[in-house]
From TrEMBL:
Residues 231-446 form the Histidine kinase domain. One of its GO terms (biological process) is phosphorelay signal transduction system. This is histidine kinase. InterPro entries: HATPase_C_sf (IPR036890), HATPase_dom (IPR003594), His_kinase_dom (IPR005467), Sig_transdc_His_kin-like_C (IPR004358). Its EC number is 2.7.13.3. It comes from Edaphosphingomonas fennica. One of its GO terms (molecular function) is protein histidine kinase activity.
Amino acid sequence: MGFRRAFAIGLAWRVALLLAAAMLLMWTLHQPDLGATRIVAGAAVIAAAVHLWGHIRRTNMEVARFVESLGHGDLSQAFGRAGAGSGFDELGRTLDQAMRRLREERLAIADEGRFAAALVDESPTALLTIDDEGRIDLANKAARKLFRRVAGVRREDFAIHGSTFTTALEAIRPGERRLTTMLLDGAAQRAMLVAAGIARMGAEMRLVSVQPIQSELNAVEIGAQADLVRVLTHEIMNSMTPVTSLAASAAGLMREVDDGRDPAIGDARLAVETLARRAAGIMHFVETYRQFIRTPEVAVRRFAGRPWAEEIGRLFAASAQGGDVRLDVAVPDDMLVDGDPDLLAQVAINLLKNGAEAAAGHAAEPAVRLELTPMPGGRTLIAITDNGPGVPAGFRDDVFLPFFTTKSNGTGVGLSLARRIVVAHGGTIALAPPEEADGARFEILI
């Protein structure tokens, strides 16, 4: 309001001055004896017109400079001038306030942009962007860590994570979710893909999140198995406890009355003793499986790999299975492992014993191998290999299930318990494809 009033007053008196000078000039034109006055009046008209033009042009120049600054994105210009008069000091303050507000808004937008970028970059889920030409970019830290071995931006560059994964990545569309399999450090893992559509600079793109969920699936599966075993063992224990007790009592009574003279009593005694032994065997079997319910308590620490492997070798050599089976150990001298050495030793010894039993009945020179390999990201691959017959194709998906065993005297506890220990470490255990080993090869990644 101050600028408009001062500008209007300044404009009014300049117009009035111009009109007065023009009227004076017109009057002198009708007075033949006032030549000098006519010249002065003409000069006054010119001066008043220039003064009026400068007043109007000054406003236009200030506004034009303001607009030009906006056009070039230069918000550092200042317009305020003390003592400018005619309201131009007010105009300058108004333009400066506008500039200051624009600077604040720009800073707020930049701050929001940095926050959004940090939100994406720090997201724990790997994010990929895929444009219409198939270019795949790693959008955040999690993606750069997960796909650290990828050296390009094309689908073919992601082939190291498996053809199943690259096919799913190419096929997924915005709004879809896909469960797929990807190779991470050589181990197959399940992963969830979720896609959304976004636009960047007028171009449509797909934003795909990649979340490996093998550990979560393992935990859920093991939890379900533990619940099943808990129910079964509870019901079997409740049913078999009185049967076992009565069978043992009956066997004792039959021994007292059987003097060997009556064959029928002898047969009855034999039947009752067999029943008692089988009942006790079932109770032992159930009690063994109750171990599966207990979640292993993992005490992770960093330990040297070679001494750990050498100790396992000595324990294996002292076992019944290790007497006639050669053990090869391959561990880098300076290798360190993060894990619970006792629980991991339990897993390794169990796998070595299983491998030794398989190799002893198959190979002319039975052998097993324990190998530790450092992996990217500070992880460790523990591989146990034997030269036995391998695991039949029809059983490969069942070897880690509770109760499953291919041995006549097996309980089906060993591998399922090994899997629980590995999953408790946040790792994976898998049976390698048959083409990667002559016999069976179990790979543990922690």
